[in-house]
Amino acid sequence: MIDYKGAIHIHTKLSDGTGDLSQIVKAGLKTKLDFLIISDHNHLQYKEQGREGWYEDRLLVLVGEEVSHSNEHILALGIQTPLPEHLSPAESLKKISEQNGLSFLVHPYGKYRVFLRSRDYSWKNWQENNFSGIEIWSYMFDWIAKVKLYNLPYYFLFPEKAINGPFYQTLRKWDELTQERPVVGIAGVDAHARGFWPIQVFPYAKLFRTVLTHVLLPEPFEKSFSKDAQRIYTALQQGHCYFAYEKIKSATGFKFTIQGAQQTAIMGDRITFDPSLQLIVTLPHKAQLRILHNGMPLLAAYSDGATISVRKPGVYRVDSYLQGKPWIFSNPIYVMPDENDSS
Fold first, then answer.
1. What pLDDT digit, counting tens, does each position of 227-261 carry?
2. Is residue 342 part of a domain?
3. Is 57 found in the same domain as 170?
4. Which of 19, 49, 247, 269 is least enclosed, having the fewest CB within 10 Å?
5. Residue 250, domain member (yes or no)
């Protein structure tokens, strides 16, 4: 599989960001991203202007929409027609599905308080179960969750010091949902490139070195926009992806598979349980590694990899921590019971 990394959940000055597309493309090229996904609020203007495509044959730019229902937001990818703001969350999820698009709940437990102002952007409609996935790690909400009036100057100067990783509630909810059905996890930078003039605290290029989503493709890009865009969307739909905090170390080279005598699964796949199954993890650098089964730690070790026997069906995922910070988070592999096993 070919590993491509990209930044997802990016705002431009056409909504509440500060940069135009050319500035964002320049930042993507500078940071050597393979793809980026623009997601302004409630429109697809850059798509409608024909601005999607390959830039310098190195960066694939896609355009989605952050559908905003009051303070509950959905990232809609692969759609052709924008969704109006007045729809309910349930109606938006239905409209995205009707366009064969992907829907990701963004910052689902996002709350913060700065000065005397409290904001709640958490997802309330968990009874709706037809979304594709969840933004497990939202970089800007991770940062702002630790910011108070007294430490604001410090975290503006050293934003990485505030980073703690995905919220515990988000990971717990993800583990709960994946025991019912596949739910894809991604990371979002939620880039706006704001600051206080003349200081831009979160420029796009800086954010593009933080939490990135890696997609795994069976073949290299062809440099055909339509084909390569569909490959990205298919990988995200299937959960053939993982996400990582690239600020501390590149995650390229991470691998997580489950292999049996006659079958192999990568992240996002389902595989039928049999006694020959082996779970294999490879990290690009030694780190604190965890293997989880149905949300519970099965193995923890400081290593650059591990191989264990899969002893029962369930949902398996991997995470790792480096230099005291969360680093890599896999999507799950789903080990299904053998329906032909009568024992």
1. 999 999 999 999 999 999 999 999 999 999 999 99
2. no
3. yes
4. 49
5. no
